[in-house]
Write a structure and sequence with these properties.
This protein has 593 residues and is α+β, with helices and mostly antiparallel strands. It is built from 16 helices and 22 strands. The strands form five sheets. Strands 6-9-10-22-21-20-17-11 form an eight-stranded mixed sheet, with helices on both faces. The chain has a five-stranded mixed barrel with strand order 1-2-3-5-4. Strands 12-13-16-14-15 form a five-stranded antiparallel sheet. A hairpin with a 7-residue loop joins strand 7 and strand 8. Helix 6 crosses helix 10, helix 8 crosses helix 10 and helix 12 runs antiparallel to helix 13. It starts with 17 loop residues before the first strand and ends in an 11-residue tail after the last helix.
Length: 593
């Protein structure tokens, strides 16, 4: 046999017996003619002791050599125990030692004590995943998906796989396209989500569907985004909003209990989208701390301070946050003002509460006593508090203050867990060109069809988001099950009848066959594991992620392909792409491999 026990599974009960373990050499030490080395595998590690005179191979062992050890389990000598290890009271005396595979000099240490450049880690991801933290993240991810499956199976859900080569549909990001060899010039799209197929499953009578689905979106990278990701996708027939939310709460509570060992209180708090924006300046507010946005507009009906006066006369608002005690200097004030401008503000008013009750600020001389006292009272000011005030349109003002709120108050870790539902999102919004578009996706039902038809800019949707510690885990909605309403939504979005039939005719036809009311949800498995594992980037919980520029340093993807392959697919590179391919240094993109 290659091994009889996992390295971390050897216990005091095995003392006096012979075991065989196999794994990697964590480290080796020589003491007075005796060699010690730790063998590590997926179960943990155990100390091994060898006499170099009897086992000369031990002198050649280096870190990460793959070895097999047969030996006797014995107690460690008194005073040499390691209470930090599950195997810290025992060791294995070598009877036979085999090197299964040597290892080259390592590009970095296989431990969590060394900071390693991410590019180097991703280039050697197979080594990075041996590190304790990364291995723990992989195990946590596996446990999360196992709990999800068990929980939903107990609730009567059916796990169904949906296609990954589909028709291109609008879902909020660019599609990842796949050319067809058999139908040159035509393309499949990789699914941004299984949205339409899970709705078809409701039409098919499945009633309770789920899938741990791979999804693909060609969008800009952030710490919580990748080109490909994994989400829990589920749908239910004859559901209203509360049915969906209660189901997801059960799943998230089960996952949290498994990974963190705590029971989160149910039901989760709920805020409407407008309340979340108004109080926290975000549709995914971090509820682990207060620092709510305060409306100050009514304090300045006749203010002589031009910034406030002009904003109010233009139909805007004046609002602020109390940042609490802060070290405040001119440099800090300037930096915070620049940050406010990055977030969209024209400027920022700051005030510091003095011990004598006055407010130190460059604008204090423009405010009368009633305005000063109103600010202090409304913002519940104490000596040392720093106040930040913005004046502009409502959306801009709350967004700026929401960003500053996170900068000032957001905890560095995810030790505390604050789940939240944000509900009643707008049905539509404006895109960057000012055209009307959907907020979630075009298959979300309105709370009022009449409101949608007569006042689409203010229509409310049956959509909801799950938020954890300021991270949007996922979104869902009650779907449109009436084909007439679905066509009406397409018209409002500017999708004409011919385009709707070309892109969605198959789906619109399906809606004609007795579609039940239904709704669903999807949350990012990567994001959930990220928060529960106290990570700040989903790259730390995805086995083989891409960099922030979409590259895979390990395999070199994306790469150029042969002209023959392109010709077979009916694809031809543009002149600019050919120049880049033939001279990769031309645009500095040599890192693409």
């Amino acid at each position: 046999m290659i091994r009889s026990h996992g390295a971390g599974a050897v216990t005091e009960a095995d003392i006096g017996s012979e075991v065989v373990v196999a794994g990697w050499v964590q480290r080796r030490r020589d003491h007075g003619g005796v060699a010690f080395f730790d063998v590590r595998d997926a179960t943990g590690l155990v100390q091994v002791v060898a006499d170099p005179a009897e086992h000369p191979t031990v002198a050649d062992l280096k870190m990460e050599y793959c070895v097999r050890v047969r030996g006797e389990v014995r107690s460690r000598p008194a005073g040499t125990e390691n209470p930090d290890l599950p195997t810290g009271k025992i060791e294995i005396g070598v009877v036979e030692l085999d090197v299964l595979a040597p290892a080259k000099t390592l590009p970095f240490m296989i431990d969590d004590r060394t900071d390693v450049d991410e590019a180097v880690r991703l280039r050697h991801r197979y080594l990075d995943l041996r590190r304790p933290r990364m291995a723990a993240n992989l195990r946590a991810r596996s446990r999360v998906t196992a709990v999800i499956r068990r929980t939903l199976d107990d609730m009567g859900f059916l796990e169904v796989e949906t296609p990954t080569l589909i028709n291109s549909t609008p879902e909020g990001a660019r599609d990842m396209l796949v050319p067809s060899r058999l139908r040159p010039g035509e393309f499949y799209a990789l699914p941004q989500s299984p949205q339409l197929f899970k709705q078809l499953l409701m039409i098919a009578g499945v009633e309770r569907y789920f899938q741990i689905a791979r999804c693909y979106r060609d969008e800009d990278f952030r710490s919580d985004r990748q080109l490909e990701f994994t989400q829990l996708d589920l749908e239910g027939s004859f559901w209203e909003r509360d049915d969906v939310l209660e189901t997801i709460e059960v799943v998230l509570a089960a996952v949290t209990r498994e990974i963190r060992g705590v029971d989160v209180p149910l039901p989760f708090p709920r805020l409407t989208w407008h309340e979340a924006m108004d109080r926290y300046g975000s549709d995914k507010p971090d509820m682990r701390f207060d620092m709510e946005i305060v409306d100050l507009s009514d304090l300045f009906p006749k203010s002589e301070f031009g910034v406030f006066k002009n904003a109010l006369e233009a139909g805007g608002t004046v609002r602020g946050i109390n940042g609490g005690p802060q070290e405040w200097s001119r440099a800090r004030a300037d930096a915070m003002t620049e940050r406010a401008k990055e977030l969209g503000a024209r400027g920022l008013v700051w005030m510091v509460s003095q011990d004598d009750g006055s407010l130190r600020s460059p604008v204090a001389k423009f405010l009368d006593e009633a305005e000063i006292e109103g600010i202090k009272s409304r913002m519940e000011v104490s000596p040392g508090d720093v106040l930040l005030i913005a004046a502009d349109r409502w959306r801009t003002t709350v967004g700026v203050l929401g960003g500053l709120r996170l900068d000032l108050g957001r905890p560095n870790t995810h030790d505390d867990l604050a789940y939240l539902w944000v509900v009643d999102f707008p049905l539509f919004e404006e895109d960057e060109e000012g055209a009307i578009t959907f907020s979630h996706h075009p298959f979300t039902s309105p709370t009022s069809i009449d409101e949608m038809a007569n006042d689409p800019a203010n229509a409310i949707s049956n959509a909801y988001d799950a938020v954890l510690n300021g991270v949007e885990l996922g979104s869902g909605s009650i779907r449109i099950h009436d084909p007439k309403v679905q066509r009406q939504v397409f018209e409002i979005l500017g999708i004409d009848g011919r385009t709707a039939e070309r892109r969605f005719g198959w789906f619109l036809e399906a809606l004609e066959y007795g579609t039940p009311p239904h709704g669903g949800f999807a949350f990012g498995v990567d994001r959930l594991v990220m928060v529960l594992q106290n990570e700040t980037s989903i790259r730390e919980v995805i086995p083989f992620p891409k960099t922030q520029t979409g590259l895979d340093p390990m395999t070199g993807a994306p790469t150029w392909v042969d002209e023959d392959q392109l010709a077979e697919l009916g694809v031809e590179l543009s002149r600019e792409s050919k120049m880049r391919r033939d001279d990769p240094d031309e645009d500095g993109s040599e890192e693409s491999g």
